[in-house]
Specification:
With 271 residues, this protein is of the alpha/beta class. The protein is 38% helix and 20% strand. The chain is built from six helices and eight strands; from the N terminus they run H-E-H-E-E-E-H-E-H-E-H-E-E-H. It has helices at 4-31, 48-51, 102-105, 123-139, 172-176, 217-261, and strands spanning 46-47, 66-73, 79-86, 89-100, 111-120, 143-150, 186-187, 191-194. Helix 1 (4-31) runs antiparallel to helix 6 (217-261).
Length: 271
């Protein structure tokens, strides 16, 4: 370990561990919410553009924030998400692509947000609502939507025996794969769970989020991970040095055994 090459390796591990330690400290700083959302703030309806931006993750304190926006439904993009519970009863959500008005999004680029429009107990009821929504989408120029802004649940594969297009998680990323008019489209990562139901659907049960503790436990977990990585950097240096030493020791013992087995002098010549 005192050889120059291993001292150099130790210095490199110190640099790597220092970077990991800095990252852990940064995560701890983010774990403490310095400006928590005041109690009841999520119940105040705010413009969507003031709360989140397309393509960005929704900060935890803003999950469940009530927002409002104005746009038009894109025909053909009313889709069903299965396995959604409403007051303990399993059913289906009907979702749609809301193309936000440029005056609301603040940009001329096409921008959309996924909206959960309501809940249906059966697939037949959900499809009947979609037929009504499709008919209205062509006639209504714009619609105002108010609801809670919820984080993307992440896409998952459909059940093995289900249609490949089946969705069981509310994921704008998965919905985007089935939407139309998506060239150059900017999409919000979170989705809106509409407060008011559309097309005869039941309103989605979406209670106010509980007040947070002021700590982001996910960031604390990440900070612990970085500390483990920093310790592993030193363990890796020790393990590599020990392996090299053990290999040299084995080579030395092999050389000793070879010398013991070899005769002291040259073999006698044959007569």
């Amino acid at each position: 370990m005192l050889r120059p090459q291993w001292i150099g390796m130790l210095l490199l591990c110190l640099v790597v561990a220092g970077v990991f330690a800095w990252l852990g400290q940064w995560q701890l700083g983010r774990a403490l919410v310095s400006n928590p959302v005041p109690p009841g703030a999520t119940e105040e309806v705010q413009p969507l553009a003031d709360v989140a931006a397309p393509g960005e993750y929704l900060p935890e304190p803003l999950v469940g924030q009530r927002v409002e926006t104005v746009g038009r439904w894109v025909p053909g993009d009313f889709l069903i998400v299965e396995g959604r519970f409403n007051d303990g009863v399993e059913g289906h959500w009907v979702t749609g692509q809301l193309r936000i008005n440029p005056s609301e999004s603040g940009t001329d680029a096409p921008t959309s947000v996924a909206v959960a429009l309501g809940w249906a107990a059966t697939e037949a009821d959900a499809r009947a609502a979609i037929e009504e929504l499709e008919a209205a989408a062509s006639a209504v120029e714009q619609v105002e939507v108010t609801g809670r802004l919820i984080s993307d649940e992440g896409p998952v594969p459909p059940p093995a025996d289900a249609d490949p297009q089946t969705m069981t998680r509310m994921s704008p990323a998965a919905l985007l794969g089935q939407w139309h008019e998506v060239d150059g489209l900017s999409v919000y990562r979170p989705y809106i769970a509409s407060i008011d139901a559309f097309a005869g659907l039941d309103a989605i049960s979406s209670p106010a989020p509980q007040d947070g503790s002021g700590l982001n436990w996910l960031n604390i977990f990440y900070a612990v991970e970085w500390a483990v990585f920093a310790g592993f950097a030193f363990y890796l240096w020790y393990r590599l040095a020990k392996d090299a030493w053990e290999k040299e020791l084995e080579d030395f013992e092999d050389d000793e055994d070879e010398r013991r087995r070899s005769p002291d002098g040259p073999a006698p010549a044959a007569s």
